[in-house]
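Tutorial, part two.
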Amino acid sequence: MATIKIQQVRSIIRCPKDQKATMAALGLKKINAVVEHEANPAILGMVEKVKHLVKVID
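Running the prediction step on this input gives:
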């Protein structure tokens, strides 16, 4: 399966708990941190939920 790189671009301070939990599940803790995941529906759904906090890198 294809992989995607996800970069955190905004802080999770003052975000709802569910969005903080989603960021933790993705493995993102600090701004400019980059993680790589397989592009499956679960990961893509999590990225969609926090799309205002992250950037998908090609």
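The radius of gyration is 10 Å. In part three we will examine how such features are distributed along the chain.
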